[in-house]
Each structure stands twice: as structure tokens, then as C-alpha cells.
Amino acid sequence: MVGIRKCLFPAAGYGTRFLPATKAIPKEMLPILNKPLIQYGVEEAIEAGMDTMAIITGRGKRAIEDHFDISYELEHQIRGTSKESLLHDIRNLVEHYTFTYTRQKEMKGLGHAVLVGERLIGNEPFGVVLADDLCEGEGKGVLAQMVELFEKFRCSIVAVMEVEPDEVSKYGVVAGKELEDGIYVVSDMVEKPDPEEAPTNLAVIGRYILTPDIFEILRRTEPGVGGEIQLTDALKTQAQEGMVLAYKFRGKRFDCGSVDGFVEATNYFYHKFKD
């Protein structure tokens, strides 16, 4: 296998938990301070050594493509002013990294979104970032931690964290044998289980390293919870046919798909940059 060059961003969802703000603005473009959520994810992927961002969009998501593009009119207006430096970071991303796009025409679940991205990814391992899960790694980013693990084990990896038992119904949940400290060989995965049926309290969050055989598995994965094609179900099959690791990452994660998590992230990064 080659190294990991590409990162997939499923970004076609409606963001209904943030209505009416997300009626016309993609949830991935909601800002934490002065930077949209998806840009944090892109920068995390770049830190992990990836140079091509494959973004799955949908209707009403044009702002994402415009953000990762040159705005000649705006740059002309602020050229030579003190505000010109504010565009330095995003201009650097546009000039030095590749952004590709395709649309998910129907909302059929995360597994379906990943499958839609197959033509952008090809036959190679890749990262996946859910932009509304904003992560702050310890020492290095969460994706960078996972890439190091992939280089050792060469298999699919999901990032996990412990959650309260009454919270497991919001997540995919994994069970498995601990291979090393914080690293588990997955034996079972369940999407949004009832608390009394959850095998553990290890919840999958929006960071994945996937090997390309996941596409063929997704093609034969039947709709699951909510009538959607669940990436969790495909990963369970992959674990049964080969090996999938769950990694308890070092760092913090903010659920910016919820108002509480969004406010928590805003306060955290405000104080971080202020200090």
C-alpha cells in the first residue's frame, strides 16, 4: 500500500440541529472564531501528511467550494491594507493543496457518502474527517496520530473515546480486545445501540483511516439503522473478514454539530488564542 495522501470530507448533510442558521449556510462553514469548521479539518489532514481533500457536497453547499478558491474581488479590495494578512492561511491552502468535489444526490447515510467518494479516492488508503467533530490533539493532531498507527498495522482504524453510558445511543460503539495501551482489535461494532445493549462505552468519533476494500464492502452492505447505509456496519464486516483497530486518541473532541459543543469549542479556542 502507498502512504495516505487523500482525505475524504462527507459534507452533504443538512445540519438540522442548527436550523435556521443552516438553512442557507452549510454547517461545515459555521465559524469557530474566524475560521469555518471544515478548514480546521483540512488543516488537521495536512498536518497528517495528506495533500488532496476530497469533499462530498450536496445542494446548497456551494459556499464550501467558494471558500477553498481564490476570491479575486475580495483580494483586490483589501490588497495593501492591514486586512490582507487575514487571508494568508486560506490562500496558502488554495495554492498548495488539491480540492476535489462530487455530490451526494441522496442522503442515504455516512456509508453511502463514503461510497460516493470512491471515484475521488481510487484504490488507496485514505482518511475521513467529519468536520463537525472538531478535534484538538495532544502533541499532534488526531489524524496524524492515526497515520502513525496505520504505518505500523496497515489496516482500517477508527478513533474512539469513552462516553457516559446514557450517551452511547448517539454513536457507533465498538468492542474488542486491547492490543496495546489504548489500541483495540475490533470484534464488534453497533450503530446507535440502546444503553442496555451497548457492548462497551467506546464511541466512534468522526476520524477514520480506511483501506480501499471498504468500498466493495459498502456496496454489499444493506441499509441499517434509520434505513441508511451505515459505515459502522461495513467496518464490522471488515473487522470480521480482516482487521480493524479502534484507537483511543490523545486530545479533546468537540461535538460542533450540537449547540452545546459548538459553544464549548468557541470558548476553548477563544481562550487558547487569547492566552
Structure in words:
With 275 residues, the chain is α/β, with parallel strands linked by helices. 32% of the residues lie in helices and 27% in strands. It has a single domain (6-274), classed as Spore Coat Polysaccharide Biosynthesis Protein SpsA, Chain A (Alpha-Beta Complex). It has 10 helices and 13 strands. The strands form 3 sheets. The chain has a 5-stranded mixed β-barrel with strand order 8-11-9-10-12. The protein has a two-stranded antiparallel sheet with strand order 2-3. A two-stranded antiparallel ribbon has the order 7-13. Helix 5 crosses helix 9 (231-241). The protein is globular and about 60 Å long.
Write the layout of secondary structure elements.
Elements: E1 6-10, E2 31-32, E3 35-36, H1 37-47, E4 52-57, H2 62-67, H3 72-78, H4 88-96, E5 98-103, H5 110-116, H6 118-121, E6 126-129, E7 133-137, H7 142-153, E8 156-162, E9 172-180, E10 183-191, E11 202-210, H8 214-219, H9 231-241, E12 244-248, E13 251-255, H10 259-274
Parallel strand pairs: 1-4, 1-6, 4-5, 8-12
Antiparallel strand pairs: 2-3, 6-11, 7-13, 8-11, 9-10, 9-11, 10-12
Helix pairs in contact: 5-9
